Records
---
Amino acid sequence: MKQLNSFLGLMAITALSMVSCTSPKGDAGDDTFEYANERFADLQMLRYKVEGFEDLTLNQKLLIYYLSEAAMYGRDILYDQNGKYNLRIRKALETVYQSDSVDRNSDNFKELEIYLKRVWFSNGIHHHYAMDKLEPDFSECWFREQWAKCASPELQQQIDLDEICKVMFDFTVMHKRVNLSEGKDLILTSANNYYDGVNQEEAERFYEQQRAAWDDQDRPGMFGMNSRLVKLPSGEIVEKRWTASTLYGEAITKIIACLKQAREYAEDNEQRGVIDKLIEFYETGDLATFDEYSIAWVENTGSMVDFVNGFIECYGDPLGLKCSWESIVNFKNIEATKRTERLSQNAQWFEDNSPTDPQFKKQDVKGISAKVITAAMLGGDLFPSTAIGINLPNSNWIRKEHGSKSVTIANLTQAYNKAASDGLRNEFCFSRREIELLNDYSDLTDDIHTDLHECLGHGSGKMMPGVGEESLKAYAMTIEEARADLFALYYLADPKMVELDMMPNKKAYEAEYYEYMMNGLMTQLVRIRPGMNIEESHMRNRALIARWCLEKGEKDKTVLLVNRDGKTYVRINDYKKLRNLFGELLAEVQRIRSTGDYNAAKALVENYGVKVDPVLHREVLDRYEKLDLAPYKGFINPVYTLVKDDKGNITDVTVDYTESYADQMLRYSREYSTLPLVNN
Ligand SMILES: [Zn+2]
């Protein structure tokens, strides 16, 4: 039931050009900010502009500064969560990369540089999105030679080169970070570092027991969220918690220290209370404390500055229990927030009028606080690849009783769009009509899609009594994302949206429909290597929706894949009928989730969301390659600096955007590396 990343995948590849509410159309000409930065492998680096930072009060700036420091200190945790050799491999690569003795003009060095940049991007050796192991194109032999020349004796002691070379170069070892393929032991076949020595059945049994032993069955904790599950030599299975005094304690202690500094500049007592609860959770690892923190956080809506810091999202664990470390520091975009407030004020209307079965609807939709924010710092699993919308907390009972906070991160979408090119649209749209439709409206409709997905989609519907969050297992995340997307798609076409003055006319939604179908059926395949299946949950969800509608709409020719001059295109003949199909599927997906119908979830995902048509795939890859675009994008963070007067008093905080990607990553490794190379 994770709520992140609603649209990132789509955004990152469809070359959108949304204009956020803070930058109305027309100002693009005098925007000299350089959004696009370097490119390598399948990645494009971007910068985001922290517009409005200068206008904040000194207190707010300092709050952001110290929360940003806290956002940096968790970086090593994520590397270690993603794989037990990641910190050692990063250290070895950085050592060779910075060595004076290495020939920087050699091909091997250039390939090492690309590989290292990819490892930084993925926070480990597996592709951040595809989950499979990155292939080094430098020779192992060359690498060993360089290492022998430049690594200090201490480092050579600490790092067993044979071991890490095997992990890097041998593709039979740890080849997939998260395996979601049915039929295999999902834990034993995943290379993440969340489980040690336990298999899937043992882990599932362990957490079933925890669940059963919990006092308040209506308010279950987030079992397993902050620990590694380990089988001891004795055969006993125990959790190694991530707290200030246990596993990852070195990093967590630093995070706490920064939070304590930030606390001094909290906007009010309520926000101070949120920070205190988080510190308490980091110290104790107690799940009930985490719930208390989440409630305090979700109820703290008045503050200008806000942040996420901790173990949040579970995409990295095939069982969806273990949460990766992440952070985002942000402040409210007041103008644009008025838009999402209009949606949340009408939340009950949307719930009541959705095409789902009345028994699965919420009678009383609880405070969905929706705002548009400006990201000021990204860390952990939100960096460099990031989300453009977030809806938290993830605990279902807290969402039901206390609501959730939903955000659209406008300055990141703005950066994607400013850096985008028109190539993809021109190549894959069926005709001039669709290109113009997208040019005219997709800026806006993408934004509204994200708002609907995050503010309303994830928050809608309810579970039937006795249905647990774990019932859909490996399919839960795909089904949940499909539900939120379908909710958004269905309502984009609703006259209510024009009535609420969110959509300019009754046709604009067609831009989103076309773009969504084109992406789900074709263009998102550029992120999949030939012969591979779709693995990532958001991609599965988009394929599922698009292909299901293609199949169900076949007899009426609602949506078709047509061939023209040897190229395949998506053709939508009837947008109204397509809306009905979205509504139909929304009702079914809501039923699956509300009743925990595992078999139906499995059938839907396996039949529509996983497999790739190899012929169409090849065609899409070939056409895409000719466009020379990078399928994935991520960000370089700004740098904040304290300004002091001669007496040492802090007078201001400045923001700078000139640090290069490699310099930033090396600096983070230097200044914020807190964990030992081996964490057991
Ligand atoms: Zn989502």
---
Amino acid sequence: MTLSDGLSRRGMLMKLGILLNGAVGVVLAVPIVRYILSPVIRERTSGYESWLSLGPLGQFPTGQTRLATYRNPVVNPADGETANIPCWVRNVDGEKFQVFAINCAHLGCPVRWFPQSGLFMCPCHGGVYYADGSLASGPPPRGLFTYHYKLEQGNLFINAGEMPTTGAPTASLTNISLRRPPCA
Ligand code: FES
């Protein structure tokens, strides 16, 4: 084996290594680039942002807050019961409603309505919300997320299909309060 043979073999291995590293880099970069561009390129599946009925208005007596459930229209067969999404419906005066996401605005635990105190309370870190969904106390940085709603033919409909979060179009941030920083 000559010196020139050794050098050419080393050069060839070097090129092969660079080629393999490049291929691995491309494979790793694809999901990262897709993640970064996902807000722009993601597909809107059918059912995304659908108007869904929560039931007849008679289920929601004036002045009361009741639990309702809807079936997430963006669903996979394997989702099962997890696609049944609960929410809180507040009938303010028979004409005005509020529909709150059940998830706490802190870390998403399901909040519970206590009619005796007129408060929503979160079991996880003590977040408390007033009846209108605004923040009363605790670590959540804002009030409860609300769904857009409409009344049609005696039924209450909400605009759903994507879980309400800070960046979701169905989220209403009118109850934002930045009085308290989120806890660690
Ligand atoms: S998840 Fe509700 S207070 Fe933290």
